[in-house]
Specification:
Blueprint (H helix, E strand, L loop, with lengths): L4 H12 L3 H5 L1 E6 L5 E2 L5 E8 L6 E6 L2 E6 L3 E6 L5 E10 L5 E12 L1
Parallel strand pairs: 2-8
Antiparallel strand pairs: 1-3, 3-6, 4-5, 4-7, 7-8
């Protein structure tokens, strides 16, 4: 028998009131897909959706490990400038207001031809 029902309720409220992904955040790139081949002479459309979680504020777009854009919209499509022929990595990372990564990210490796 539980002698402290109020304590149980308070613990449930404190530790179980929000979904795990809301606290940690999540980023999904839906297009292009991993391993996609894109035209080297055309802009690339990157479709995404993000939940910045508790600490996050915005996203950084990294192309081949270098930040190329700061994105405040949490769902949409970004146009990326033409890439040189070869293999490339596109990443979206959740960041704080101070531009510190919080952990959640999504990356796709593509080839421009």
């Amino acid at each position: 028998m539980n002698n402290h029902p109020l304590a149980s309720v308070l613990l449930a409220i404190l530790f179980g009131s929000t979904p795990a992904h809301a606290a940690n955040g999540k980023v999904t790139i839906s297009s292009p897909t991993k391993g996609a081949v894109v035209a080297a002479n055309a802009k690339i459309k990157l479709s995404y959706e993000a939940d910045t979680g508790y600490d996050g504020d915005h996203l950084h777009l990294n192309v081949d490990g270098k930040r190329t854009d700061v994105i405040r919209q949490l769902k949409g499509t970004i146009e990326i400038d033409e890439l040189a022929p070869g293999k490339h990595q596109l990443c979206l990372l959740v960041n704080t207001k101070g531009h510190v990564p919080t952990g959640p990210e999504s990356c796709v490796d593509i080839t421009a031809k």
